[in-house]
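Quick one, probably user error.
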């Protein structure tokens, strides 16, 4: 079919692919936010800055140490995750029993500091990061051209999201995490180090953001503002899916990316606001979000 709904098929499927790629980043980032909020009750506004740090760590590893994409995909989440562990132990742990607002204000301040440091050091123009040679090129599917790297981003994001959901919802470790959220005193009575569990959980949520940053580096330029541009949309995704809902973040992230892509085809003027319109409608009908539970 050369045209679908009056739109050339290559244009339609191209925008769908673009929406699916954006949805992949939305899903991974909102998953990290949902884990941190759902298990730790922290609204992590520094998530966008940590996403940006993941991209910059990959770029610096290549630039200064000659470490390529595949090793950076493993190393960058670990490096940024360790910074998350330090932040949780030194700062966020002191606010564990305080109102959510204090954690939000603290992480918002951290985001501004991190972005300011990178902006002063590297400026605001984007730094290129090449696609790994193994994923260069693409394949013609007949109705559209599919770049190999973009297919990899969707596959890697989906695999990571499903694996994380399985660990949290279907394993003993996930049961400990959920129990520690509900009744930390009881869990600690069984010999489990709850503070360490909380710290590592925050570090893992931050590492997810860094992983998304490495995936994004070859597609978007590595830029100190890349996290600030993404975090507001990701927060909207989390609200729509349900604050703290793991499955809601994954499903909503991919779905809203596709909706955004389709909007660019049929009504481009609304593409930058459609997610926020959906958020308002969802909150009016179901304030806890599509997959959330009322407090």
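Nope, works fine. Designed sequence:
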């Amino acid at each position: 079919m050369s045209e679908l709904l009056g739109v050339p098929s290559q244009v339609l499927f191209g925008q769908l692919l673009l929406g699916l790629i954006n949805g992949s980043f939305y899903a991974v980032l909102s998953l990290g936010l949902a884990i941190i909020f759902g298990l730790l009750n922290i609204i992590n506004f520094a998530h966008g800055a940590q996403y940006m740090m993941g991209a910059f760590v990959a770029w610096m590893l290549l630039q200064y140490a000659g470490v390529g994409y595949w090793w950076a995909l493993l190393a960058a989440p670990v490096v940024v995750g360790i910074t998350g562990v330090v932040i949780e132990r030194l700062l966020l742990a002191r606010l564990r029993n305080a109102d959510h607002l204090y954690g939000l204000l603290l992480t918002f301040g951290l985001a501004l500091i991190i972005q300011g440091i990178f902006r002063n050091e590297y400026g605001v123009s984007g730094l290129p990061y090449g696609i790994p040679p193994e994923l260069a090129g693409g394949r013609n599917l007949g109705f559209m051209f599919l770049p190999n790297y973009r297919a990899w981003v969707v596959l890697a994001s989906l695999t990571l999201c499903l694996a994380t959901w399985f660990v949290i919802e279907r394993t003993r470790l996930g049961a400990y995490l959920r129990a520690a959220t509900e009744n930390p005193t009881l869990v600690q009575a069984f010999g489990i180090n709850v503070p360490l569990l909380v710290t590592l959980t925050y570090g893992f949520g931050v590492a997810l953001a860094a992983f998304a940053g490495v995936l994004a580096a070859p597609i978007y330029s590595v830029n100190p503002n890349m996290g600030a541009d993404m975090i507001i949309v990701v927060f909207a995704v989390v609200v729509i899916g349900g604050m703290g809902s793991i499955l809601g973040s994954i499903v909503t992230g991919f779905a809203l990316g596709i909706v955004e892509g389709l909007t660019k085809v049929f009504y481009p003027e609304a593409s930058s606001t459609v997610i926020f319109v959906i958020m308002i409608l969802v909150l009016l009908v179901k304030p806890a979000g599509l997959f959330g539970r009322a407090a």
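The beta strands are 3-4, 7-8, 138-140, 145-147.
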